[in-house]
Specification:
The complex is a heterodimer.
Chain A lengths: L8 H22 L9 H18 L1 H49 L6 H30 L17 H32 L15 H29 L5 H39 L5 H33 L1
Chain B lengths: L6 H22 L4 H22 L5 H19 E3 L21 H11 L4 H12 L4 H8 L3 H21 L11 E3 L2
Antiparallel strand pairs in B: 1-2
The chains are: A mainly alpha, B mainly alpha.
Chain lengths: ~325, ~180
């Protein structure tokens, strides 16, 4: 970097390549719109012309064109993903630098110990991002199409990309649990020392219950990933059909969301109760209480929606 | 109706605007390179989506800055500074663009600005991040310097109130950020 607010050359170049690749991919995905004809008759005539043309030219020509198209699509997809990989790796390198800087600051006593936990989480998060992109690149190379996320996706050359991806994705909430637990421990220490209020750790309304709810959310996310991994294995052993596997995946997500919302609601209720007590003694603005009550209502609405989603998936499964 | 966005036009526009866009974003986040790169990349990805449909705008840098600014506001609305150094309250006496060089300070000011009315946020943005003097701001807005000073004072007071609400009284020596979502 040549100046304080100037971009790194590598970043500028990589983003340019990514923009080129992304534009090509979008243009390719849209394709020429010759088939959007104005009338049914015109469409019929065109289809007939294409059929005659195809017969005349022979299946070989059509197959060759298809191969060229597939190869072009594969190259464009690869180019886009590879650019994303370069940028993600740069982010990872930056996160590692920030972690080292945090460790240095802690070692000389100018930053609190838990600042290292934040930086460690960021490294694990960006590392997962890099691994997911690398998996995408490998899947495109092997399949010549975009990576498939569905639990019912087929193996690619005997390799199970879906499971590999789920394991990498699961590593992020696992890291969030570690971070959350270290924050809770730090908060408890401050509470025990009498320098923090359990219901208002940082004067912004964050409570110990909030921190615990975040850990519980991350645990619920890990649970959802584990269920999806089990469903995937069952599908691969022909234990369920593709449709059922995908529906059960949706069910796991909806139930996980419901569980997380339930915990958020518990935390929000506790928050409202704490604020009510403070409003009664005149130490908190009633508007703040109204905001918290509104947030609680919003969460309850979200929970109703999650219940509906679960019911919908169960009905589909029953069919 | 879709217009054609040629690769050449896109790249020419990119090369012309990437540095000023980055400079704007980097100052707004106090020089946090990782965050600045994320925001610039995000703005350009949105640009490709929009410009393929609507064509390149007459003032692409203004478009990009607006998108980056909105993304940045959304980003800081989601963040919550957990612990604030009491000395941060002295930021009101900072001169000009000091916040543009300090990610922690920028984070706190951005957090507060994302919660202010636009008129106040824009004034503070000019003062803290664009490094404009009262005279520059007055000239840009066709106001007297005294009027700008008054408005700036009121905006700072509102910002200070927002920040005070999240200031830990126990005293810490750092600023930490965490996702609330």
């Amino acid at each position: 970097m040549s100046g304080a607010h100037e971009p790194r050359e590598e970043f500028v170049n990589q983003l340019e390549l990514q923009l080129r690749a992304d534009l090509r991919r979008r243009n390719l995905a849209t394709g020429p719109r010759l088939w959007t004809l104005q009338s049914t008759r015109a469409a019929a005539l065109t289809i007939a012309a294409i059929a005659l043309g195809s017969m005349a030219l022979g299946g070989g020509v059509v197959a060759t064109a298809y191969e060229v198209r597939l190869s072009e699509q594969r190259n464009v997809l690869l180019e886009t993903m590879e650019q994303q990989a370069v940028i993600a790796k740069q982010r990872l390198a930056l996160a590692i630098q920030q972690l080292q800087e945090a460790e240095r600051r802690v070692s000389v006593g100018i930053a609190p110990g838990d600042s290292v936990s934040d930086a460690q989480f960021r490294v694990r998060e960006t590392d997962a991002e890099v691994k997911l992109i690398d998996l995408g690149v490998e899947e495109i190379r092997a399949s010549s199409r975009e990576p498939m996320q569905a639990l019912s996706a087929p193996l690619v050359s005997g390799r199970d990309f879906v499971t590999e991806r789920l394991r990498v994705q699961m590593s992020v909430p696992v890291a969030a649990i570690d971070l959350g637990r270290s924050r809770i421990q730090a908060a408890r220490t401050r509470i025990n020392l009498g320098v923090a209020d359990p219901n208002d750790l940082d004067r912004s309304g964050t409570s110990l219950v909030d921190l615990e709810a975040r850990v519980a959310e991350a645990e619920s996310a890990v649970g959802t990933f584990q269920r999806k991994l089990e469903i995937r294995q069952t599908f691969l052993k022909n234990g369920v059909t593709a449709v059922v596997a995908d529906l059960r995946g949706l069910q796991a997500e909806a139930e996980g969301r419901r569980l997380a919302l339930g915990r958020q609601i518990d935390a929000a209720r506790g928050h409202v109760q704490a604020l009510k007590a403070k409003v009664n003694v005149g130490t908190v603005d009633p508007l703040k209480l109204a905001e918290s009550e509104l947030r609680l209502q919003q969460l309850q609405l979200d929970l109703t929606k999650a219940d509906y989603d679960v019911a919908l998936v169960l009905r589909q499964l029953a069919k | 109706m879709s217009r054609t966005l040629s690769e050449q036009d896109l790249i020419e526009t990119y090369r012309r605007t990437v540095k000023p866009l980055y400079a704007y974003v980097s100052r707004r986040v106090g020089g946090d390179a990782a965050l600045a790169e994320d925001l610039v990349q995000d703005a350009w990805m949105r640009a490709i989506g929009d410009w393929r449909v609507n064509g390149i705008p007459d003032e692409p840098i203004a478009w990009l800055v607006r998108v980056a600014r909105n993304t940045l506001i959304s980003h800081f609305r989601r963040l919550r500074p957990q612990l604030l150094e009491p000395a941060q309250l002295d930021l009101m006496s900072l001169q000009g663009s000091a916040a543009a060089e300090d990610p922690g300070m920028a984070s706190v000011i951005n957090w507060g600005m994302a919660r202010l009315r636009r008129v106040h946020a824009e004034l503070l943005e000019d003062f803290y991040f664009a490094g404009k003097s009262v005279r520059d701001i007055a000239r840009d807005r066709s106001l007297s310097e005294r009027a700008v000073e008054g408005r700036l004072r009121r905006a700072r007071e509102k910002l200070k109130k927002k920040i005070e609400k999240v200031t830990a009284m126990g005293g810490t020596d750092h600023v930490r950020r965490t996702r609330t979502s």
